[in-house]
């Protein structure tokens, strides 16, 4: 029997303290609360004081921003993960690459962008043959979607590899050796006309967008939000609105929305917005929410959706949306390679291991 895991995000009041808790339930029974999400502040302080620190924002100094500029100037879109920077066993390599190395690089590359187009490729050795398997591009329009996107690409690509080697080499996936991969990323940089998209988990709810608030009012709200955290200026009491922001559980990687400022109890008529920030936590804009109950409601996983194209089944709407975007994996490709061949690349940019932890090599498209 499969385990049904659910999360609840609640506030408790104990004496004069307000406590935010992330509760985990397995098959309906409550387990230990997540210690990494718990936050305590005096009960009379604003909700925003719970979220002063964001453990999921990355730090970019001048050196890292200079690397991004070099990547753009030299048209570097290909990144190779080298053999020696990850464990030799295939399972360990894939686990470290999918959970850490690839998401970390994509978060870095997402700074200053409207979206990323990402393609993943694996070099596979099996029965004295070498093959290269590559996914089709997947658009990532919010940095908070990176984890789900990488998970979907990896799982679909490995499924394709498993089916292929079983059919043509008559061996299971476990017989394959994978110790090298390629990540191709096209950065679409922000412009004055860029429209910040919500994370996919909240886009599929269809509970936000179509702002009914004038641009002047939005500008005033944005201005006050920007001044509030940096300069300690309180948002004026006469500005009646509710603000929410996004958080990611450092342990389970679950994405959820939390209150930042609550001024109106009548949620049907109080203007409500969600704050959009970039990968370093800087303010990007506000998105109006027209149905906050639907927006905050956690999707149940008891409804199965079938893909009409390939008959795959999904209980998660985000996974289904990503599956459709990548067209059921139809554009995935495989190439047979000479196992003794040596790849030579010019215009290479080794990324600093003290920042990335892994030995990524960027390959430029042309000389600057």
From TrEMBL:
It comes from Drosophila ananassae. This is Protein terminus.
